[in-house]
Amino acid sequence: TGIIVILLILFSLPIWTVTYPPLSDYPSHLLSIFISEEYDNPAFNFPTYFVVDWRPLPNLGSEIVIYLLAKVLPIETAGKVYLTAFGMLFILSIFYFVNSIDSRKRVLGFFGFLFFYNWYFHQGYLNFYGSLPFYFFALGLWHRSASLASFRDKATLGALFVTIFFFHLISWLALVGSIIVLTLWETGNRKKLVNTAATLVPSLLLVINYFVFLRGGSSTHMGVQFLNPYENMTFAVTHTFVDFSKLDILLYVVPIGFVGFLLATDSILGHARDDRESRKFLWLAICLIVALFTLPLQISGVLPFNIRLNLFIIVVALASLSVKTVDKFRKPLMTVAIVCALACLGNVWWHYRQMSAQIETYVSGIDYVAPNKNILPLSVDISGGWKHVPLSTVWAYYHIKKGGAGPYLLDLTHGQIVNYRRPKR
User: Fold this and answer.
1) How many CB atoms are closer than 10 A to CB 322?
2) Model-level pTM greater than 0.90?
3) How many angstroms separate the CA atoms of 198 and 182, rounded?
4) How many CB atoms lie within 10 A of CB 373?
5) Cβ pair 166, 64 in contact under 8 A
6) Three-state SS for 78?
7) What is the per-residue pLDDT across 3-56, written as a single tens digit (0 to 9) for each?
8) Which side of the chain, N or C, has fewer Cβ within a 10 Å radius?
9) Dihedral angle, C-alpha 95, 99, 100, 103, nearest 10 °
């Protein structure tokens, strides 16, 4: 427990030791929240350009949390608190998940630190990143509870279903699909199946309301894009093991290779066959892999779609290691996980300092902009080569300080809190 606490503190430091966390979509999220918070402030002209929509939509989770935090904290501090809290929750949810399978597997939770900072975090996908802990908390609770008989278990699981809906619909679908796969191992437990269905009802009603009555996704349509298996594999690797450049993949070779070796050992020695819980989650990992290769990369405006299963796959596959193997390699598992995670942390910290300094230079021009002026962003990425973490939305910091309107990240009538005010026809 002491090691976990120390690591959680260490991994939060890159967020707090820079002025501007260099996350791609992060500034535009802060701007959306700032507009909704200061909408009626006469010092700004936000009502002229924007409308605020608080209907029950997906992708509102991070905005709601940061909005509430911003009631007592400056907006940029509230954003950092959110990033820190949900990074920690992500790690703790992995420990909870593997512990719910077998307490002797708890050591596997240290591998979660490898992905505290991941591709989705650096892209500033606050809602998807925020949904990750709820997936693992919900799956762990569902597996731990023998029949979901108690009111507390049913209420908690139902609340987790609803919460994950408000963070990201893909994660909600992944959770529902994962539980459906696991119920194939629980077909004789009729009481648990009925209770599971009951806990799903509130979130299912929200999904139906979103697609049928709120016409979710109808405001934009960019088609459906499928990839061939090689392209899927390439995207899955880059969106999992690349933070700032493809060289980052080397930081993951040792830990992922070690886990792969242990999974092969399980198969060769037959440990998995003797461990029902390991077989259960191995089949779930296989089903998620099949989904990754059969679902499209893009559905309408959602990009990427199938690749977002990658972190679920990695943690579920890790949890499928047999207890015998985990017991045998406990110390090497913990050592490899912590050492490699710290190497990843050092890589993130070094890049964050450089990139935040560039954002500070860009934002220093705010003092020269008059209040409530409409601006255009730079037409190129200010980062000068940070291919995998574009910093092209930092213009949002101008509007957070001075008001006005600019090139909003998205204009989805049914997909976010703040949208452009559409002209009347």
Assistant:
1) 26
2) yes
3) 17
4) 14
5) yes
6) helix
7) 999 999 999 999 999 999 999 889 989 999 999 999 999 999 999 889 888 889
8) C
9) -170
